[in-house]
Design brief:
The complex is a heterodimer of chains A (191) and B (89). Chain A is mostly helical. Chain A has eleven helices and no strands. The longest helix of chain A is centred in the C-terminal third of the chain and has 25 residues. Chain A is elongated. Chain A starts with a helix and ends with a helix. Chain B is mostly helical. Chain B has one domain. Helix content of chain B is 83%, strand content 0%. Chain B is built from four helices and no strands. The longest helix of chain B has 26 residues. Chain B is elongated and about 65 Å long. The chains are: A mainly alpha (191), B mainly alpha (89). Chains A and B meet through helix 2, helix 3, helix 4, helix 7 and helix 8 of A and helix 1, helix 3 and helix 4 of B.
Chain lengths: 191, 89
């Protein structure tokens, strides 16, 4: 542990860090929690639990580092440890398939089968939101972190505890799945 | 002859893999200037990549427009503030 991490903040400093660095991310945190749990009460519990943990472990937060990424990491871990355990059947990704995706025969398939920009622009919010929600939680998470929250690959790797290469291949696979679903919507709309 | 075809297929797949990786990095704003320029040049001559990039970009924009902007419920905000105030004594 670095010197900065060992340092104990005074109560005033803790309050200042909390208000100025943690609290501004409340909306993003709630959005993330809601898209993981699909339940308003669970999302509230998850966000509250995350903020209480953040305060309790504030001494391990180094000022000047990315507070949002630190909070997202706590929330993701709380979700896995506390909330996902409650679900009946934890979802699993065939990681072997994901890891080898770039080298598979799928590479020869058209990159974006019959999906066009004009059809996307005619979609209302529900369609894209439903498609995102229909993704397996691990695929959904990378899309949320990258496309909704704008985290960089290295930040995502730290939040998710996975190598950058896995972040990128998982993101690639997630986007293809999203496109398949949106293609289905586009066909229904007559495109 | 067969060997030549195999090599040609392998080169094609390799090229496509490079394009997909480049597209993703540029799309996510994580490419350096050199890679961005290389990709821009590639788009001028590759219609599949051009189409794919535009679709991916449109989806990324749509996600940002339609799936963000949720506000935290006021009661949760108050509850967190109150619990932290209690802890911070």
């Amino acid at each position: 542990m670095s010197e900065a991490a060992k340092k104990k903040y005074s109560l005033d400093e803790k309050n200042r860090i909390f208000k100025s660095e943690f609290f501004p991310h409340l909306d993003s945190m709630y959005n993330f929690a809601f898209r993981l749990t699909f339940d308003e009460d669970d999302a509230k519990d998850l966000v509250q639990d995350t903020y209480l943990k953040a305060f309790r472990f504030i001494d391990s937060f180094e000022q000047g580092t990315n507070a949002k990424a630190w909070l997202f990491r706590i929330l993701k871990n709380s979700f896995i440890n506390d909330f996902r355990k409650k679900s009946k059947a934890p979802t699993k990704i065939d990681y072997q398939e994901v890891e080898t995706y770039y080298n598979s025969d799928d590479i020869d398939e058209p990159i974006t089968p019959d999906l066009r920009v004009d059809s996307l622009q005619d979609m209302i919010g529900d369609e894209i939101s439903n498609a995102l929600n229909a993704l397996d939680v691990d695929f959904r998470t990378v899309i949320i972190l990258c496309d909704l929250e704008g985290f960089k690959y290295d930040e995502m790797a730290k939040i998710l505890d996975i190598p950058i290469g896995t972040v990128r291949s998982r993101l690639h696979r997630a986007r293809n799945l999203l496109k398949e679903m949106l293609s289905g919507y586009a066909k229904k709309m007559g495109y | 002859m067969e060997k030549t075809n195999e090599n040609s297929n392998a080169e094609g797949a390799c090229e496509k893999q490079k394009c997909l990786e480049m597209l993703q990095v540029v799309l996510d704003g994580q490419a350096d200037e050199k890679l961005k320029a290389e990709f821009d040049e590639h788009l001028k001559n590759c219609m599949p990549c051009f189409k794919s990039y535009n679709v991916d970009f449109a989806i990324k924009e749509l996600l940002k427009q339609k799936c963000c902007g949720q506000h935290v419920p006021q009661d949760l905000k108050e509850a967190i503030k109150s619990k932290i105030d209690n802890l911070a004594v």
